[in-house]
Amino acid sequence: MTQPPNTTGNPTVRRRSQRVLVQQVVSISFGGDLATAVSENVSSGGAFIYCDRFMASGSEVGLVLVLPLEVTQGEPVRVWCICRVVRAEKRLIKGKFGIALEFLNFQVLSQA
Fold this sequence. Notes:
- The protein is mainly beta.
- 4% of the residues lie in helices and 50% in strands.
- The protein has one domain: Beta Barrel (Thrombin, subunit H), CATH 2.40.10.220.
- The model is unreliable at 1-13 (pLDDT under 50).
């Protein structure tokens, strides 16, 4: 199986699915706390967010976000995801931590 082109500039990074640049406010649940963050990009396999809370690699978090039509291949869909933190950047950017999340599973939420 061939891998999609690597557009990160890092030859060791292999993307399983194409990322879509989408900035949206997302809700995060972790360790009994709730926080908000802003997504930078989303794919069918995960997301990269900026959050004012640090989350250690390997942590599991809950996330509510809207998967854009480029990911769903149809209509945008609001979902609840269980995610694993695969990378957390310790260097702050505009007072926020960059956090890479892998989707473990998700559930479509009603549009009410």
